[in-house]
Amino acid sequence: MAKDYRKLIQNSGFKMYQVAHEAHISASNLSVWLRYPDELNASQKERLETALTKLGIKFN
């Protein structure tokens, strides 16, 4: 089961576009990534988790 990144972002107080900006992707791409978290490849997961870490969002 994939992590619920969407819920983490919503609970953090950050907006989706802020996370997308930090991950260097478009907000629409982030939306797709969050819709299908089980299908993220290792590179996408790393990019997303790095962005979350930089914003101070704990995901472990």
TrEMBL record:
Superkingdom: Bacteria
Which named protein is this? Answer: HTH cro/C1-type domain-containing protein
From which lineage does this chain's organism come? Bacteria, Bacillati, Bacillota, Bacilli, Lactobacillales
